[in-house]
Structures are given as structure tokens and as C-alpha cells.
Amino acid sequence: MANFWKILRKTDTKKRLSVPIRFLRSLPPFKLGSHAVTFEATDEKGKAWPFQCSIRKRGQYPKPVLTRGWVAFVKSKKLQVGDKVRFIKHKNRATAAISYRVRVEKEIKVFGAIFGYARI
Fold first, then answer.
1. TF-B3 domain spans which residues (predicted)?
2. Using CA atoms, how far apart are residues 3 and 76, in angstroms rounded to an integer?
């Protein structure tokens, strides 16, 4: 199903996670006149994390970001600049229920050079 991944930058680890506009199509619909929507994503251990995705109230470019719930997730997972986060939307074929998953990969450095990523 739909997903996106991002290598984290400083703002992503300190304040909010900017997400691509195409990710908005994967989220529950925004209520009329609203600039935010809440959804839950389950991590690899089965813990549900509530997130809020907000867009600008005005302007042509909505600039979507994850705000509420994001910093708590970053702190819990001890995420740092260079780590990778992935969001996956899943639709159950039998029930048509929609769920979201969030996965984290920590950057592995060997002698200062990026060697790869490891799931945590």
C-alpha cells in the first residue's frame, strides 16, 4: 500500500516531521474547514502512536507536517539526525480496515562513514 520514508534532519528530530504532499492522500480525510487530522500508527513492537498531521491554513502549498505525538515518538525511539523513518498504510483485504505502521531504522556508522541502516 501507500508509504513514504525519510532520513531525519534536525527539525524532524526536535520539532516536527515534514511529510510529502502525496502522503496526505493516504491519511483519513480532513473534516471540512479543518487543517489537521489525527491517525494512529503501530510500531514494530505493536505499540500504537497517535499522530496529528497539520497543513497550512492558507497558501497554495499545504506543507504537511506531523506535529502532536511526533516529538514523544522521537524521544522514545532515541532518534537522531540521519536515522530513517517509514510510514506504511495497510488495507486489510478481508475487512477493508485501514491501519498505519511506523518503522525506524538507525544509521550505522563505521569509522565515521555511513555503513547502512538497521531496524530497531
1. 2-106
2. 22
For residues 47 and 16, what is the distance between their CA atoms, to the nearest angstrom? 20
Report how far residue 49's alpha carbon sits from residue 33's, in angstroms, rounded to the nearest whole number. 25
Confirm if 55 and 89 have CB atoms less than 8 A apart: no
Predicted pLDDT at 75: 96
* 17-57 pLDDT per residue, tens: 999 988 888 888 888 778 899 999 999 999 999 999 998 87
Cα separation, 41 vs 51, whole angstroms: 7
Q: Residue 68's Cα: distance from chain center in Å?
A: 11
Give the count of domains, the chain: 1
| In the predicted structure, residue 2 carries a pLDDT above the cut 70 | no
For 105, the domain range is 3-119
User: Secondary structure of 80-107 in the HEC alphabet?
Assistant: CCCCEEEEEEEECCCCCCEEEEEEEEEE
